[in-house]
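User: Hi! I'm working on a homework problem where we have to compare a predicted structure to a textbook description. Could you give me the structure for the chain below?
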Amino acid sequence: MALRNRKSELKLPMRVWDAPMRLFHWAIVVLIVTSFIAIKMDHTKLHLLSGYAVLTLVLFRVVWGIIGSETARFSHFLRSPMAALRYLLRFRDRAPDTAIGHNAAGGWMTLVMLLDMLVQVGTGLCANDDGDMAGPLAKYVGKARSDFLSAVHGWNFYVLLGLIVLHVLAVTAYAAIKRHDLVRPMVTGKKRLPATARAPRMASPLLALLVLVVIAAGVWVLATRV
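Assistant: Happy to help. Predicted structure tokens:
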């Protein structure tokens, strides 16, 4: 019994995030910043290219959330809204961080941000700038609807920025209040967890590369052939 207790207290590095998930996370950060700077500096072509890259990565994340590594799968981290609420109500508790992947609240935050990014890239495909730049689907939805979707695309960008700020504040609160470091695992992929914890199953990076190439090819066809 004493040996079992010592083993449960021992913490060892465990890989919880695969390379595709980590690369997706930081690449999205770079691309959103690029999109924001590009539109503010009136570089609409760069903004469009950045948008295609975001679309590729978000679609990849959706597919990877179905067939990817265990901690990337929606079925692994999406729990009931009540479970997320109970977790938030206990937020001030300084219990050790034993979550393998997203916790109950973080899972819903991830889903909301992905849905909002889908809204952003979806409306961008149909948007226009009343000049010579337009999304590849703008000509199919008509000018009036394209103008409406352009407006949605504009204000939803600030909704997305608000979600990003909320995400950063949440990560900061985890560090300050709960003493949980959420940044390092997203950089290294590893987290110190009890030795008794089961390591999550990791999918092949070659599968991730195949999915990314297929999606990128589809987005390229959308951007150049539609």
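For your comparison, note the following. The longest helix spans residues 143-178. The chain has a mean pLDDT of 91. Good luck with the assignment!
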